[in-house]
Every structure is written in structure tokens, then in C-alpha cells.
Design brief:
With 357 residues, this protein is of the alpha/beta class. It is built from 15 helices and twelve strands. The chain folds into three domains: 46 residues, lambda repressor-like DNA-binding domains (434 Repressor (Amino-terminal Domain)), CATH 1.10.260; 154 residues, Rossmann fold (3-Layer(aba) Sandwich), CATH 3.40.50.2300; 138 residues, Rossmann fold (3-Layer(aba) Sandwich). The strands form two sheets. Strands 2-1-3-4-5-11 form a six-stranded parallel sheet, with helices on both faces. A six-stranded mixed sheet has the order 7-6-8-9-10-12, covered by helices on one side. InterPro entries: HTH_LacI, LacI/GalR-like_sensor, Lambda_DNA-bd_dom_sf, Peripla_BP_I.
Length: 357
């Protein structure tokens, strides 16, 4: 069966443009509309019959789409899965977990299976391919993550950009002039993961006007490799010693701070004597992170709101699209909701003040 991406490729436009032609949520030129319709006719694209069938039944199940490589652990996956499950139960729903790494096709399988009324999507990319699937099938969904097109679907997120900027500004005010921003992995940045790109952008924004220099590095899961990189960034002089040694490390990677202190010890560094460490995205209740200054990830609030948004979309779609094959995409476009949570920098056992030379 042809997909919305097939139609877009045939018409020479973006998948989102095809969605806008169908749901009428954005102005589209007559020439573009004509090309899309010609592609639809040529390919025999008819997604609405399956969407109507899905909306005709109710499962009282919410799917949580949490893409993850087999065997790899992430500190935030478990707390979010539990929090979304609890939120779903409070609303009278069960939770179905899907971990397919093929994000778009994994969601398509769940939507077409009829096993769930709606989905909550994690690991959100800036231009997330699952948004096209949701529009194509008129399948209710909400995101834990802020996409580039903020009006595409309902979403909730921590303001990662402001969190990074806040950390840099506060460290600069405490006397730090050279900092390292330990961002998420190179793989996540290359994949345009939303929280990774927004954090890096925030670190650059925070440095402007403060007189501070922020060097961006990328986290890895191997503690020995983290120690090696820290030694290169914080101890050795890649430029022959002309640059001052960084006195602050901002850690955004959700799992790296669990072994960052051990890695620092292996690199011959102490905190706070040699290096001030600030964590962005610490999980509330994580004792290993509470000793450090941190911006906590509001897991319960994000999970509760995103689940409510997904259920609200499912209810609206079921109750308002009977007999109207094209109403689903229009309704989804009209029921977008957002929750962007402002960060707060919480104190730890160690001060922000820059170590003395």
C-alpha cells in the first residue's frame, strides 16, 4: 500500500505538505495541490478506510513508543515508562510498550493493528518521521519531546535550550570562564534528536555576553572512554597550553553522570577542587545525581500531561469523525496542545564557585 511518503516523493514535495493538502490546516498553492492530487491518483493512495476502521473500536490501551537498541540501558527510559503507565491507569487505560528502532514503521504496525487507541512517542527527533505516520493514518498521538514543527502534534518537554543556557550563565556568574558541555552522543546529534540539538544551542546562547567559552564534547557509554576524553579536554593541552584549563563541566547525557565522577577520578580530577560539575536532565530521586547542582527532568509532570493529551485526541477523534473520512487529520491539526516546562537549577552538595588557580 502506498504511503504518504510515496505520495510526497512522486509529487516532489515534503510529506508534511501532503498532510496540509489533506487536512487544510495550512495555505497551499493550487499548483502544489494539483501535483499532490495527481500523485494520489497515480499511486492509488487511500489511507482513510483503515483509519476509519481503527477509530470505530476502542481498546482502552495507550501505546508507548520507546525506540531503544537491544541491551542498551538509559537512565530515563524506566522512570518515564512507569510514569506514563501510572498516568494511563488513572485515566482508565492500560499501557502497551513498543521498542522498535524503526520508528515510523514500528508506529505504523501499532496503529494498523488496532491494539491501541493512541500513542505516546518518546525519543523525538526534530523532524520526526512518525509525525507523517500519525497524519497519514489519523492515529492520535502525543510526543515527549519538542519537534521543529511545534504545531504538528501535541507535545510536552523540558526547555532543554533554556536549561543549558541557565547552567552556563550561572557558572559564568560564579567565576567560570572555560567550560565543557558534555552533550548527548554523536549518534543522537547526527540523528537530530530534539533534546540534544536544543541543549547544544542553549549552551552557545548562554555563553554569549558572559565572556565564557564553552567547548562541546559528546558523551559515550564506556566509562574508560569518558575518562580518556575528560583527560584530553581538562588536563592535557591540545593547543600547547595556550588555552586555560576548563573549570566547569555541564553534563546533559541522561546516563553519563552515573559514571562521570568515577571517570574524573581516573583522569586525576576532583570535584569541586578541580572541576565544578552540573547535571542537566537528572532523574528526580536519583541519589547519585542529587549531590551535584542539577536541572531535574520533570518526569511525572511530562508523563501525566502527554498521556492526557493523547487520550484527549483519541476521544475527540472517535466522537467527532463518524462518517467523515477526511475529518481525522483536520481534527488532529485543531487539537494540538503544548507544555514546555521552564528549568530550575537546584543546588547540590558542591558549590558553583570556580576553583581557585
Amino acid at each position: 500500500m502506498p504511503t504518504i511518503r510515496d505520495v510526497a516523493q512522486h509529487a516532489g514535495v515534503a510529506p508534511s505538505t501532503v498532510s496540509y493538502v489533506f487536512n487544510g490546516s495550512r495555505p497551499i498553492s493550487e499548483e502544489t495541490r494539483r501535483r499532490v492530487q495527481e500523485a494520489v491518483d497515480a499511486l492509488g493512495y487511500h489511507p482513510r478506510a483503515s483509519a476509519r476502521t481503527l477509530r470505530s473500536s476502542r481498546t482502552h490501551v495507550i501505546a508507548l513508543a520507546l525506540p531503544r537498541p537491544a541491551g542498551r540501558r538509559n537512565a530515563v527510559d524506566g522512570p518515564f515508562a512507569i510514569a506514563v503507565s501510572d498516568a494511563a491507569v488513572r485515566l482508565g487505560y492500560d499501557l502497551l510498550l513498543t521498542t522498535s528502532q524503526d520508528k515510523a514503521e514500528g508506529l505504523r504496525r501499532v496503529a494498523l493493528s488496532g491494539l491501541a487507541d493512541a500513542a505516546v512517542l518518546m525519543a523525538v527527533d526534530m523532524e520526526d518521521a512518525r509525525i507523517d505516520v500519525v497524519r497519514e493514518l489519523a492515529f492520535p498521538a502525543a510526543l515527549i519531546g519538542r519537534p521543529a514543527d511545534e504545531d504538528a502534534l501535541p507535545w510536552t518537554d523540558l526547555d532543554w535550550e533554556e536549561a543549558a543556557a541557565l547552567a552556563v550563565r550561572e557558572l559564568a556568574a560564579a567565576g567560570h570562564r572555560e567550560m565543557v558541555y558534555l552533550a548527548p552522543t554523536e549518534e543522537e546529534v547526527a540523528g537530530r534528536r530534539s533534546y540534544a540539538l536544543r541543549g547544544i544551542a542553549g549552551a552557545a546562547r548562554g555563553a554569549r555576553g558572559t565572556g565564557a567559552t564553552v567547548t562541546v564534547a559528546h558523551a559515550v557509554d564506556d566509562p574508560a572512554e569518558v575518562a580518556r576524553r575528560l583527560r584530553g579536554l581538562l588536563v592535557e593541552r591540545a593547543d600547547g597550553g595556550a588555552r586555560e584549563r576548563p573549570t566547569a563541566l555541564i553534563v546533559q547525557h541522561p546516563s553519563a553522570h552515573h559514571h562521570i565522577l568515577t571517570s574524573m577520578t581516573d583522569a586525576g580530577l576532583r570535584t569541586p577542587e578541580d572541576l565544578t560539575v552540573v547535571v542537566i536532565g537528572a532523574v528526580p530521586g536519583d541519589l547519585s545525581g542529587r549531590r551535584l547542582p542539577r536541572v531535574e527532568l520533570p518526569v511525572e509532570t511530562l508523563a501525566g500531561e502527554v498521556t492526557r493529551l493523547a487520550v484527549t485526541a483519541a476521544t475527540a477523534l472517535r466522537e467527532n469523525t463518524a462518517g467523515d473520512a477526511e475529518a481525522g487529520p483536520r481534527l488532529l491539526a485543531d487539537t494540538v496542545g503544548h507544555l514546555l516546562i521552564a528549568p530550575a537549577l537546584l543546588p547540590g552538595d558542591t558549590p558553583l564557585t570556580a576553583p581557585r588557580a
